[in-house]
Write a structure and sequence with these properties.
2 helices
Length: 66
């Protein structure tokens, strides 16, 4: 799980760094169509892992309400 979050954070920071170098305002909107196939696959796997963890947490309510 930690790896998934780290991979997403790394991708986000790389995207923001590229924006700054290009003179654009950095943001969090990564255009996945611009990712190379390996990075895209890693992102998909990370997002699947996070989704699975979120679904697991939802199945065990802890008495907390949003």
């Amino acid at each position: 799980m930690r790896r998934a979050f780290v991979r997403i954070a790394d991708l986000r920071l790389m995207h923001q760094g590229e924006a700054v170098r290009a003179g654009r305002r950095p943001n969090d909107a990564v255009d996945t169509t611009e990712l190379d196939p390996l990075t895209h696959a890693e992102l998909q796997e990370a997002l699947r892992l996070i989704d699975s963890a979120q679904q697991l947490v939802k199945s065990f309510p802890l008495g907390m309400r949003a």
